[in-house]
Description:
It is built from 15 helices and 14 strands. The protein has helices spanning 23-31, 75-81, 89-107, 117-130, 145-148, 153-163, 174-181, 210-215, 235-248, 263-272, 290-296, 317-324, 355-367, 373-383, 386-397, and strands at 2-7, 37-44, 52-55, 58-63, 111-115, 137-142, 168-171, 191-193, 222-226, 253-257, 279-283, 299-302, 328-332, 348-350. Strands 3-4-2-1-5-6-7-8 form an eight-stranded mixed β-sheet, with helices on both faces.
Amino acid sequence: xxxxxxxxxxxxxxLKKDGTPPFVYELSKRLAQKExxxxxxxxxxxxxxxxxxxxxxxxxxxxxxxxxxLCEGGILPNLKNNKLLYFQxxxxxxxxxxxxxxxxxxxxxNTIHAHWIVPQGFIAVFYKKIFRKRNxxxxxxxxxxxxxxxxxxxxxKIKKWTLNNVDILTVVSNAIKEEVKxxxxxxxxPIKVIPMGVDDKLFNPDKYDPKIKGKYNIKGPFLIFVGRLxxxxxxxxxxxxxxxxxxxxPETKLLxxxxxxxxxxxxxxxxxxxLEKNIIFTGAIPNYELPKYYATADIFIxxxxxxxxxxxxxxxxxxxxAMASGCIVIGTDLxxxxxxxxDGVNGYFVRQKNSKDIVEKILASLYNKKxxxxxxxxxxxxxxxxxxxxxxxxxxxx
Length: 398
């Protein structure tokens, strides 16, 4: 039996209206179904959660580190929005290390799967060095924010030192792999490109639900965005595009599903454009309810951007969820997104920070829907389904 510790800051709370992306949980629970793997999770405590629970074959430990705001949603956007949260960072590292040490001993852990290079990968390597655990295996997964968003000479040195001391690095897109190479890490570091997966049984066109349209009084084209309301998601450019879309199709409605530090500013933008009847902020919606929104909508738009600080998405899982649900996908032409979207085949590209491009692709999609849904679903099933992704991680873990 291999005892594997999944070490992460991104993990669902299972509380009502929790919008935490579930990709780490989805992978972990599938790995836990294998008879020879014992999967333990260590993640920060969030208000209202339990410090220990068992779910879907997982043992889930949550550690307290003082105030719990830092890891709610996303660490980097939270730090950018509230500089006072930097005072929580040392506490997060310190208590993460103490609890890592405790759980490794208690659960007889021999492998760590650290999601994010910093802080999890760094702390895991530090533990291995301090206690000289030579036969201790560390697998690190980068989801993008840790590579693109943590800049400066000190952070580059920390990332390079961490990666030079892990056994295997997995990245969710080729864009991240190219960025890792710029750090000039050791030549023999195995780097595997493995995206996070999508549950094609949960997300599928059959989840179409006309009650969604009734709830929001949708009588015309139905557009959605799903994600955290942070700079790298580029939502303001989608809002900028909406006046032209509404001019052509007055009954168009856009649901912005999610919450985040930019929410108030985006709502003010909508109000200034007099689009409050056409753009609705739903707040965060639990992952298990999202399939019916994707399957009922006509178009999903993910206008992600590269921020001033260099942060960007590694590979948006929302693109995969929308495609699996039969929703037309419009996304930004960034390197990471090219791993998912084949322009004109399973979605459409727009240039980043370009609202005119967004207008053109939305109108073109509404006028002439050329996407072959059967072909899109085949691409998802054969390349991004959790069955495919889990098997790739099993090869690494065993």
